[in-house]
Amino acid sequence: SDKSRTENADIDKVPISARAAAASLSLGPPRLSPDGTKVCYSSSSSSGNALFVSPVQSPLERLATPFSVKSGYFGFGGYYSFSMDGSSVFVVESTGDLKLVDLASGSSCTIYSGGAVSDLEPSPDGSKIAFVVGQASILVADIDGDDIEVSLVADLSHARSGYKSPDFFASPKFSPDGIYLVWSEWSFPDMAWDASRMVMVRAAGPKYPPQLVVGSPNGAFSVTQPKFSPSGSDLYFISDQSGFSIPWRMSLSTGVSQPVF
């Protein structure tokens, strides 16, 4: 109608100043504390990226870090996560360094410096944190003690029998007992959603080479976003084995995989 055309024309003419556009905020993905009482999230603006923590039952937010942080947007993981007791946050500074920030005092310590860190995954007991560096390696830092010890779990040199050596890593996840670590990896020129695989390694106790869990030697399907079930008896992941990307479940006792629905 003429009236609707006139209203639309008026909307099209609403001016937006450069200052108003610059002042707009972009919020990163929220992360809940293990006890579900707090949430942390990044807020990006023209002045930088900041990490905020807020009680779930209150609208009050508090700046958690005195430094600029990564925004939280990443193709295969996040740049911040609560510690298991909820008293601290693991966060990736804008420089790429991984830090642990105490929420009560605001003090921080550097856990790892030397590459672009992402995909943070604290262990269930809070003694370790796994993370990806530059999408090209997976490291685990032991933070249970006065000295931080960082060990290599997987990198580009870890070839799989019958498969090309991996070029990219993402989404490391601990088992509920903290003994195993699983992740998704893939090789150039494929993308993760084209052809990827799921690999698992023992993260505590006797060490063994990483073992392929689910994958296709000829790149017939993708396997991404792995996650253990609460009991640790099954692995969940996203795969397009059936032609569509849907959730799958694999029994660790039988090795049988099937769609969740």
UniProtKB/TrEMBL annotation:
InterPro entries membership: 6-blade_b-propeller_TolB-like (IPR011042), WD40 (IPR011659)
Name of a matching Pfam family: PD40
Record-given protein name: Peptidase S9 prolyl oligopeptidase active site domain protein
